[in-house]
Design a protein that fits this description.
The chain has 441 residues and is α/β, with parallel strands linked by helices. The protein folds into two domains: 10-32 and 302-439, Aspartate Aminotransferase, domain 1, CATH 3.90.1150; 47-299, Type I PLP-dependent aspartate aminotransferase-like (Major domain) (Aspartate Aminotransferase, domain 2, 3-Layer(aba) Sandwich). It is built from 16 helices and 14 strands. It has helices at residues 10-19, 47-55, 64-77, 88-99, 113-121, 149-159, 183-195, 207-217, 226-235, 263-275, 286-299, 302-321, 339-342, 352-364, 396-411, 431-434, and strands spanning 34-35, 81-85, 105-108, 125-128, 166-170, 199-203, 239-243, 254-258, 334-338, 366-367, 369-371, 384-388, 419-423, 436-439. The strands form four sheets. Strands 2-8-7-6-5-3-4 form a seven-stranded mixed sheet, sandwiched between helices. Helix 2 (47-55) packs antiparallel against helix 11, helix 3 (64-77) packs parallel to helix 11 and helix 4 packs parallel to helix 5 (113-121). It is globular and about 60 Å long. It binds pyridoxal-5'-phosphate. Pyridoxal-5'-phosphate binds at residues 40, 87-89, 112, 114-115, 170, 174, 203, 205, 243, 245-246, 254.
Length: 441
């Protein structure tokens, strides 16, 4: 399907930005030229997926689409049972509600924000265990997304292993610049989880992109197919959480993947019925289930996933070539620009990341997202701006346009000032979605 886009004249972009309260979540998508806000649910479906949509059977119970999705989850990911959910966070609510109770600690290579929120909502304490290279913008280490088992063991020693019921591995590591996780690390984390009697969950949202990186970077797997690597990597997990909006190649949907129909499956099934919908649709329509089933199979198609990851690498390279400071190497779904290096004169309290987001829109109608001090008020992480590429959507001209836009902003960086917040919601964790700002003099 073709979706026409247009670049508004500069003065209209200025007006749109002011109307949006200098928060690009408030822009109309029609006013955005290249939309890199997120890769979640924003991709393009294939002809086979559209065909599946038309065939989709809208039965409440036992639809064909559900049988197809269950078969795809089994064959592509190796999970015998699924509990469907309307999207990834619905699946997180189903699974973490069953596994986590008050006072528990949950370990993760890095919690994605909705994962963190679901652990906390169940009274748990989410603790990140990234490897050291993860926060080094320049390290060329191949698997900067890995889980530090050493860090995990330290936490277990502090809190006691009886209080750590769940260990999660997020592949790729969304909160650490989309960096991949090796199969070797997956085996180590599985052994560690078994050792402390914890359930080992893989957050598999980008399992196919991760498998592509493994094939390229982990010598043991150089001759394996992406599909075989994905199955092997997921085979170590007791359960998975999946968002169809990422490597499911659909616009909405998700599930919990489980092994066997034991107690955990039964608990998840009941929670699924309560919060998501009956266990053969979970908040998705029959046509969504059918398109998701096709998307899961397409996600491990070698030419698709290679082109997908390489497009992100091309954007990263195009930015680096123009002197824009980027996190290296590129992750699987997004490129991260370091706003502290772009605007060294803007103090962190004046949100240099958000200033960069605004300038990218003002300069070239490009929408990115701030993941620094504005999004995470308590963080001491750098002020990074994420440019996430929707799957199968943009072409080389768009990539060039984004790189040229960012380079033009860097060129006039001294003239850019910071911002201040003029209104914000009561929940600080959700600030960046709806706060309004104003430029400082
Ligand atoms: C997107 C995402 C989720 C949540 O999925 P939604 O479909 O957005 O609810 C969970 N974990 C990770 C790593 C994600 O990227």
């Amino acid at each position: 399907m073709v979706d026409p886009v247009r670049l508004l004249p500069r003065e209209d972009r200025e007006a749109a930005l002011a109307d949006a309260g200098y928060n690009v979540f408030n822009l109309d998508s029609a006013d955005v030229f290249v939309d890199l806000l997120t890769d979640s649910g924003t991709g393009t479906m294939s002809n086979d997926q559209w065909a599946a949509m038309v065939r989709g059977d809208e039965a409440y119970a036992g639809s064909e689409g559900f049988a197809e999705l269950e078969a795809a989850a089994r064959e592509v990911m190796g999970f015998e049972q699924i509990v469907p959910a309307h999207q990834g966070r619905g699946a997180e609510n189903v699974l973490y509600g069953a596994l986590v109770s008050e006072g528990d600690t949950v370990l993760n290579n890095a919690h994605f924000d909705t994962t963190r929120a679901h652990v906390a909502a169940n009274g748990g304490d989410p603790v990140d265990c990234p490897v050291e290279a993860a926060t080094d913008m320049e390290s060329e280490a191949p698997f900067k997304g890995d889980f530090s088992v050493e860090r995990g063991r330290q936490v277990v020693e502090e809190v006691g292993e009886e209080n750590v019921p769940v260990v999660v591995l997020t592949i790729t590591n969304n909160s650490m610049a989309g960096q991949p996780v090796s199969v070797e690390n997956t085996r180590d984390v599985a052994a560690f989880a078994a050792d402390i009697d914890a359930t080992f969950v893989v957050d598999a949202c980008r399992f196919a992109e991760n498998a592509h990186f493994v094939r390229q970077r982990e010598p043991e797997f150089a001759d394996e197919s992406v599909a075989a690597i994905a199955r092997e990597q997921l085979s170590y997990a007791d359960a998975c959480v999946m968002s169809g909006k990422k490597d499911g190649l659909v616009n909405i949907g998700g599930f919990v993947g489980l092994r066997g129909d034991g107690e955990l499956y039964e608990q998840c099934r009941q929670r699924g019925i309560l919060y998501e919908g009956f266990s053969t649709y979970g908040g998705m329509s029959g046509r969504d289930l059918a398109a998701f089933a096709v998307g899961l199979r397409e996600a491990v198609d070698p030419p698709y996933v290679a082109e997908r990851v390489e497009q992100v690498q091309r954007l990263c390279q195009a930015l680096a070539d123009r002197g824009v400071p980027v996190y290296q190497p590129a992750g699987g779904h997004a490129v991260y620009v370091d706003a502290n290096q772009v605007f060294p004169h803007i103090p962190r309290e004046a949100f240099p990341g958000q200033a960069l987001v605004c300038e990218l829109y003002r300069e070239g109608g490009v929408r990115g997202v701030e993941l620094g001090r504005f999004a995470f008020p308590d963080t001491d992480r750098r002020d990074l701006v994420r440019l996430a590429l929707p799957r199968r959507t943009y072409g080389p001209d768009h990539i060039e346009h984004v790189a040229d836009t960012a380079a033009a902003v860097c060129e006039r960086a001294e003239d850019v000032s910071g911002l201040e917040i003029v209104s914000e919601p009561s929940m600080p964790e959700l600030r960046h979605f709806s706060a309004e700002l104003e430029p400082l003099e």
